[in-house]
Amino acid sequence: MQRWDNDPLGSTPRASRETYLSLHDQVRGATFPEIDELEKSLGYALDSDWFENLALHTQVVVKDSDLNYQHGRILYSVLRDYLDRYKPQAVRILETGTARGFSSLCMARAISDSGQGGSIVSMDVLPHTKPIYWNCIDDCDGRKTRQALLSPWRELLDLIVFIQGDTSEVLGRLAMERVNFAFLDARHTYEMVMDEARYVMERQQKGDIIVFDDVTEALFPGVVAAVDEIGCRYPYSIQRITLTEQRGYAIARRLD
């Protein structure tokens, strides 16, 4: 993991504070009727001010593709609905592809708001306790650990265990007996998505959920192929949400 500890996202800030604020202003007003309808149907929606503040620090980045962080709303509303329906004594959640921690915190907020117990195991090759530049507005203050980057949401961090490592290696030694809910967003190849999904599916029961990010044929055909196979060969119903040509998601619910 040493190479991931030495500024893997860049050795200097990618942009000024003003640029990140401008990028945020450009996307925060966008509307997404599909997600509005999902929230309405499930009866849960993430507080918009909290959501946008978290996104500014963990999702607004300089990149070639369009900025879109609406998966945070999906994760929150779907998880809140799951917790309300099944009321597990302690929900167990697995996430692959932590990045800056945005998705983990959206799920942690769902657990906290539900008043129930639970924990999230989140893994990524990026370090949690080594200071690096993250290609985000906080880089303007210098290198930070992910732990420091997320410190404004300290009350939710107790629900999350961050593990550094390649998912194929970490899953081989990860002792989770049950995975009630999973968000898979690591390497976007068919083989990797299926490996991660098999680990999760072997530990799920009726009603449990897997959410897949980047289910977009043009950019990530391997993710689409994996989701298609899971819907055909395994006892899961698949709900797809397509926002743009660059961003699509799938919610897989265990049927038996």
Describe this structure in words.
It is a single chain. This protein has 256 residues and is of the alpha/beta class. Helix content is 40%, strand content 16%. The chain has 10 helices and 7 strands. It has a 7-stranded mixed beta sheet, sandwiched between helices. It is globular. It starts with 16 loop residues before the first helix and ends with a strand.
List descriptors.
40% helix; Rossmann fold; seven-stranded mixed sheet; 10 helices; 256 residues; alpha/beta
Cα-atom radius of gyration: 17 Å
CATH fold description: Rossmann fold
Q: Give the CATH H-level superfamily.
A: Vaccinia Virus protein VP39
CATH architecture designation:
3-Layer(aba) Sandwich
Count of separate structural domains: 1
CA-CA gap between termini: 39 Å
> So what's the overall shape?
globular
The parts where pLDDT drops under 50 for at least 5 residues are: none
Number of strands: 7
Q: How are the strands ordered across the major sheet?
A: 3-2-1-4-5-7-6
* DSSP helix fraction: 25-40%
Q: Could you report the average pLDDT, rounded to the nearest whole number?
A: 96
CATH class label: Alpha Beta
Q: Can you lay out the helices and strands and say which pair or pack?
A:
Blueprint: H1 17-28, H2 33-42, H3 48-58, H4 71-86, E1 90-96, H5 102-114, E2 117-124, H6 146-149, H7 154-157, E3 160-164, H8 167-173, E4 181-184, H9 190-201, E5 209-212, H10 221-233, E6 236-242, E7 248-254
Parallel strand pairs: 1-2, 1-4, 2-3, 4-5
Antiparallel strand pairs: 5-7, 6-7
Helix pairs in contact: 2-4, 4-5, 9-10
